[in-house]
Amino acid sequence: MKNIIEILNWYKLSGIDTIAADEPYNALQQTIPAENKPEVSVNSSPVRPATTLLAQESNSACLNAKEKCAQASTLDELKNILEKFEGCSLKFSANSTVFGDGNAHARVMLIGEAPGADEDRMGKPFVGRSGQLLEKMLASIGLNRRDCYISNILPWRPPGNRTPTDGEIAVCLPFLLRQIELVEPKVIFLLGASAANAILGNNESISSMRGKLMELQLNNGKKTAAFASFHPAYLLRSSAQKAKSWNDLLRLKRYLEDE
Ligand code: URA
Fold first, then answer.
1. Is the CB of 119 within 6 Å of ligand 1?
2. Which member of 74, 88, 182, 216 has the lowest number of beta carbons within 10 Å of its beta carbon?
3. Residue 173 counted as domain residue
4. Residues 184, 185, 186, 191: what is their CA dihedral angle, to the nearest 10 degrees?
5. CATH number for the domain harbouring residue 107
6. Residues 158-175: what's their mean pLDDT?
7. Ligand 1 atom closest to Cα of 153?
């Protein structure tokens, strides 16, 4: 029994918080076919307390994160607070806390989804293959990473680079929003749909968001301009989209030049 609890705890720490049966079944059916019934019934009540508890924990972790972030008046203070924060289980499976990096007074802030294996090892955002392409993209419009501030929605690598859950995004978002407030960039450039959806609070595809000048309302009452474009990891797989990405970079360049 103790072993089972340890295994379940390990899954939870790794971000796996749902138990699925081997075969799919229609949960709306009154009866579950006998062969699909899980051997261990975790909870048979219609409202599963484990899920509710998780949702409650996640909700209070979000409130806690927001309160803590509001106390930070510099990026260094915010980084310290994040390093001590334990409200997101991704922290326990990651090697590093990958805070934003670059120019604290940058006019442009680039935001990706989450650290990958290289970033987790080095403790810095966008240092792997995607980062190398990102640097070339920046160079094509006369920028380098020291001109920019680079961060991610999540400061911890999800195990195996899996897609972050909504709960993980919600808990980590206050740290990113506070970075935006402290850096006060003229414009943010959102890399990929996940980053754009998380920041803009929508569910739109990257194709429908790119090419438009958008606006982000911050908690401190200020606003910042935003563009969304393809994630460099996607461009590495789909080079046919590089022409569109180039147009997006030119739009960013023109916006930065326009005072
Ligand atoms: N992909 C991201 O979204 N962020 C990184 O830091 C690296 C790869």
1. yes
2. 74
3. yes
4. -140
5. 3.40.470.10
6. 96
7. 3
CB-count exposure of residue 149 (10 Å: 0-12, 13-18, 19+): buried
Rounded to the nearest angstrom, the distance between the alpha carbon of 4 and the centre of ligand 1 is: 34
Confidence of residue 23 (pLDDT cuts 50, 70, 90): low
Mean pLDDT of 152-165: 97
Is the CB of residue 249 below 6 angstroms from any atom belonging to ligand 1? no
pLDDT for residue 108: 98
Question: Is residue 23 in some structural domain?
Answer: no
Q: What is the pLDDT of residue 7?
A: 73
Please indicate, yes or no, if residue 16 is contained in any of the structural domains.
Answer: no
Specify the pLDDT at position 104: 98
Domain count, the chain: 1
- Residue 25 DSSP label: -
124 Cα to the center of ligand 1, angstroms? 9
Query: For residue 37, is it within any domain?
Result: no
User: From the CA of 99, how far away is ligand 1's center (Å)?
Assistant: 12
Domain of residue 216 covers 54-258
